[in-house]
Amino acid sequence: MNFRKGRDREEPEINFIPLIDVILVILIFVMATTTYSKFAELKINLPNADAEAAADQPKTIQVAVTANGQYVINGKPAAFVSAEAFAVELRNAAGSDDADPMVVVNADAQATHQSVVNVMEAARIANYSKLTFATQTQAK
Fold it and tell me: Which residues cross the membrane (predicted)?
């Protein structure tokens, strides 16, 4: 049964004007409250690799760290009990010189970061400020 025989059906209209007004207000609010941050860039001057070798080499202490966490100081195995005990072993390896020796860390590529940090901490406790890491150059 169709009770609306004589009436035409009106098509619904969507009024976009209020929607545009709301979007414009939201846009103005977002633009007014946005803060623009500029991140500072790090400016680093990298050293050149073509420098001449120093004429007077300081006394060096070679510390090797194996992949399984064993330590070797100047070719002699050393146990890491604590950073303080390892610092005493570094001082013994340096001898009685008053000069600040350079600690060269030869760490295996598979050695843990903690093993290398242990050596760095022991060198700090022993008051050795010169620390370097040995690397392997790739053949061309």
Answer: 16-36
Give residue 95's identity as a one-letter amino acid code.
Answer: G
Q: How many beta carbons lie within 10 A of that of residue 17, not counting itself?
A: 6
CATH 1.20.1250.20 is the classification of domain 60-133 = no
54: pLDDT strictly greater than 90 = no
Minimal CA–CA distance to 72: which of 119, 117, 114, 135?
119
State the pLDDT confidence band at 44, using cuts at 50, 70 and 90.
very low
Alpha-carbon gap, residue 68 to 14, rounded angstroms: 73
**Which distant-in-sequence residues (6+ apart) come within 8 Å of 80 by Cβ?**
69, 71, 86, 115, 118, 122
Can you tell me the distance from the alpha carbon of 116 to that of 33, in angstroms, rounded to the nearest whole number? 48
Domain borders along the chain are 60-133
